[in-house]
Amino acid sequence: MTTSTPVNQVELDAARTLLARMGITPADLLDIRPTAPTFAQYIPVVRARVVSPGTFKTYNTHWKYLEKHWAARPIDEPTVADITDMRDTARRNAKQDRNARDGRGAAEAMIGALRFLYRQAEADGLIRTGDNPARRVPKPRRIPSTRRGLPLNQIAEIAHVAATTGNDPDLDTLLLRLHSETGCRRGGALELRPDDLDPQQCLIFLREKGKVSRWQPVSPTLMANLLHHAHTRGAHPGEQLLRYRSGKPITRRRYDGLWTRIGLELPWVEKQQISTHWIRHSTLTWVERTFGYAIARAYAGHAESKSDGSTATYVRASLEEVALALATLTGEPHPLTTAA
After folding, report:
1. For a 10 Å CB count at each end of the chain, is N or C smaller?
2. What CA–CA distance (Å, rounded) separates 47 from 49?
3. Where would I find the Tyr recombinase domain in this sequence (predicted)?
4. CA-to-CA separations, 295 to 148, 291, 298, 315, 326, in angstroms, rounded
C-alpha cells in the first residue's frame, strides 16, 4: 500500500506559475474541450464576426475555398503541412496581371484568413494556442510594388480623357480631383457622406482602412464641387455622397470602368495597369519631396505603429501644415493657412 505525499502551498504556487508560463490551464490538463466543428460549420460563425468590409472581402474569398475543399474536416485536424499546401495552392491559383506578385498577395491573404479563423477558435476554447497550425506557417515575403508617382503631364492626359469621354464626365472628373487633392484611397471616397463636409474650413472627414479616420483639407473649388454634386444628385445626410446621375450610389465598379476606358484611349495606362492608387502615390510623393516625411505621413493618413519609434510622436504634422501643402499643390488659398 502506498501513501500520497501531501503537497504544500509553495509547491502548488510553483506549479501554477509554471503552467501559466506555458500557457496551460487546468482545463487543458483535463483536455475538457468541446468537439471541434467542421470548416463548413465554423466558417459561417467566424464570417459573421468580421466588422471591416475590406477584411471581409479579402478573407471571404479564401473562406469559400476552404468551405468547398475542407468542408467536412474538423478545424483541429489540419497540420502545418496542410496549411502550407493550402497557402501554396492559393498562390498558384492567383490571378496574374502586370501588377501581380507571383501570387504572393493571395498566399498572404489565405494565411491571414486562416489565422483569423483559428484565433476565433482559440477564443471559443475549441483549440489550444499551441495547437494552432496557422501560427507556424509564415506569410510570403513582400516585394516592392511597381506603383510609382506619375509625372504631371501624364496626370493631365488622364484627366483630359476622363473629362471628354464616358457617360458621366462630371462624376469622373470629380473622382480624379478628389483623389489627386487628398491622396485618399478608393474606400475613403466611397465612404464619404454629405455630413462629412465642413465648407467653412474646407475639410472633409475620411474613413479608410484599418478604421483610421481623419479630417483632410480640400481646396475651395473641390469643396464647392462636392456640395454641388451632393445637392444635384440627391445625397442626403448619412448617405453616400458620390452618385450616378440617377441618384444611385456608385460602387467600385465605377472606378474599374473608368480605368478601362482611360486605358483604351491611353495605351500606356493599360500596359502598366494604372489605377486610382497610382494617383495616391503621385500626390504623396510630391508632398514628401516638397514638405518632408512628417507632413506626407499626415497627408496620407497613415496610422502610427510601434515600429515607427518615439520620434514620430514628436514630429507629427499639424492639420494646418497639411493644409499648406494642399494650398501649394492646388494653387488655391486654404482657410486654415489664411487663419494661421
Report:
1. N
2. 5
3. 145-327
4. 19, 6, 5, 9, 11
Which residues are 205's β-sheet partners? 215
Strand partners, 198: 203
Query: What global pTM score does this model have?
Result: 0.69
Identify the pLDDT of residue 11: 75
Range of the domain at 223: 152-301+313-339
Give pLDDT, residue 5. 60
Whether residue 158 contacts residue 176, with contact meaning beta carbons closer than 8 Å, is answered with: yes
* 68 domain residue, yes or no: yes
Total structural domains within the chain: 2
Is residue 57 located within the same domain as residue 121?
yes
Does 297 lie in the same domain as 211?
yes
pLDDT digits (tens, 9 = 90+) for 16-36: 788 777 777 666 665 556 788
For residue range 175-195, what is the model confidence (pLDDT) as tens digits?
999 999 999 999 999 999 999
Amino acid letter for position 139: K
What is the per-residue pLDDT for 3? 53
Query: Would you state the pLDDT for residue 14?
Result: 81
User: DSSP states of 266-295 as a string?
Assistant: -HHHHHHT--HHHHHHHHHHHHHHHH-HHH
d(CA 198, CA 272): 37
160 and 294 both lie in a single domain: yes
Assigned domain for 230 exists: yes
**Which of 78, 106, 136 is where one domain is finished?**
136
Q: How far apart are CA 258 and CA 270, in angstroms?
A: 12
The average pLDDT across 264-272 equals 93
Beta-carbon contacts of 194 under 8 Å, excluding residues fewer than 6 positions away, are 230, 235, 236, 237, 239, 241
The whole-angstrom separation of Cα 91 and Cα 68 is 17
Whether residue 184 is found in the same domain as residue 297: yes
